[in-house]
TrEMBL record:
Lineage per the UniProt record: Bacteria, Bacillati, Actinomycetota, Actinomycetes, Streptosporangiales
GO aspect biological process, one term: epoxide metabolic process
Family the UniProt entry places it in: Belongs to the peptidase S33 family.
InterPro entries assigned: AB_hydrolase_fold, Epox_hydrolase-like, Epoxide_hydro_N, Epoxide_hydrolase
GO molecular function, one term: epoxide hydrolase activity
Domain Epoxide hydrolase N-terminal: 4-109
Protein name in the entry: Alpha/beta fold hydrolase
Gene source species: Microbispora catharanthi
Membrane-spanning parts: none
Gene3D superfamilies from the UniProt entry: alpha/beta hydrolase
Active site: D178 (nucleophile), Y307 (proton donor), H358 (proton acceptor)
């Protein structure tokens, strides 16, 4: 049905009981002594977190928190689309669609919905208000699984344009981090006459060159940063290589073992070694809520397919230039290079923060909200 329908999460208790049994029956692998996180997720860390998932984590608490936010589903291009939709009390608020990445869900935005939609109630200027739409990416969570091939970033962006049309938003802004930093600029390329501006964090397309000529267009400092980024990416890219080439092989393990899925999703959330990172820790119940949503909806494998589906569109090539004004927020650990970002985006805003992390809405929601407001405030003034 094309008309959005109200949606409420109500997971059967039997599904939660089954999860607890599977956690209790985990068959743990061995681990080499003294390797810590150098071979992957630390066994001690994972065992402690899995025990908390089974004995201390309360899904119903987080289910209730999600259900306090207006949720809807609609069908676009043959695919169920789940989304949060919070209208601002300010009548002149700017519509804004926000897109999560992997291994996230729309749950990541709960801490920023209030400040974005009702700045007056959060010590801000009511002129900075937004009507916020936060969809679940097709294949993820309650928008999944996908039912056919082809759901890459471009098709997701086209679905977002249609979603905003159905909601009556002809002109709007877009924001996204991680994979959302690919989808949101693509939305600007697809509908430049409708998108007033694109704001991204954790910009995924501007950390390394995709052709030998691009290095020559960078400053000396940027070229050195690009080389460091390439050295960093190689030992951290295994997850992306697997999901962008053979996601179905991975799906069997993720769909059958909750601890396997937790380990697979955990590396990005904890920055590989939580004892050594300077980034703001992500609350462990938030990590578990995202993983639990994937588990209960059976969409870990479907979400992984996004990497393969987008491969032919994004990996190894520079996106087409976009005329839409673009703002880039860089948080602690982000590796975007402005010279590369400007090859495919009209960058009018570039900010850098010394705290937070890759998941800015979870690790530095105050800074993210402030930067979104600042970026769109300049566009409203034009």
């Amino acid at each position: 049905m094309s008309t959005p329908q109200p949606f409420r999460i109500d997971i059967p208790q039997a599904d939660l009981d089954d999860l607890a049994v599977r956690l209790a029956r985990t068959r743990w692998p061995d681990e080499l002594p003294g390797v810590g996180w150098s071979y992957g997720v630390s066994k001690d860390y994972l065992m402690e977190l899995a025990d908390h998932w089974r004995t201390g984590y309360d899904w119903r608490e987080h289910e209730a928190r999600l259900n306090k936010v207006p949720q809807f589903t609609t069908e676009i291009d043959g695919q169920t689309i789940h989304f949060l939709h919070v209208r601002s009390p300010e009548p002149d608020a700017t519509p804004l669609i926000v897109t999560h990445g992997w291994p996230s869900t729309a749950y990541d935005f709960l801490d920023v919905l209030g400040p974005l939609t009702d700045p007056r109630a959060h010590g801000g200027n009511p002129a900075d208000a937004f009507h916020v739409v936060a969809p679940s990416v097709p294949g993820f969570a309650f928008s999944g699984p996908t039912r056919e091939t082809g759901w890459g970033a471009g098709r997701v962006a086209r679905a977002w344009a249609e979603l905003m049309r159905r909601l009556g938003y002809e002109r709007f802004g877009a924001q996204g981090g991680d994979f959302g930093s690919i989808v949101s600029p693509e939305l600007g390329r697809i509908a430049p006459e409708r998108v007033i501006g694109v704001h991204v964090n954790a910009l995924a397309t501007a950390s390394t060159p995709v052709g030998p000529g691009e290095l020559e267009e960078l400053s000396d400092d940027e070229r050195e940063q690009a080389r460091r980024n390439q050295s960093w990416w190689y030992p951290h890219s295994g997850y992306a290589t697997q999901m962008s080439t053979r996601p179905q092989t991975l799906a069997y393990a993720l769909n059958d073992s909750p601890v396997g899925q937790l380990a697979w999703n955990l590396e990005w959330f904890v920055d590989w070694d939580p004892t050594r990172t300077e980034r703001t820790p992500v609350d462990r119940d938030t990590v578990l809520t995202n993983v639990t949503i994937f588990w209960l909806t059976g969409t870990a494998g479907s979400a992984a397919r996004l990497y393969l589906e987008t491969g032919s569109e994004a990996w190894g090539r520079r996106p087409e230039p976009s005329p839409v004004p673009t703002g880039v927020a860089n948080f602690l650990g982000d590796r975007a290079i402005r010279g590369l970002a400007e090859l495919s985006n009209t960058v009018v805003h570039w900010s850098r923060f010394s705290r937070g992390g890759h998941f800015a809405s979870l690790q530095a929601p105050d800074l993210l909200v402030a930067d979104i407001r600042d970026f769109f405030r300049k566009l409203r003034a034009q």
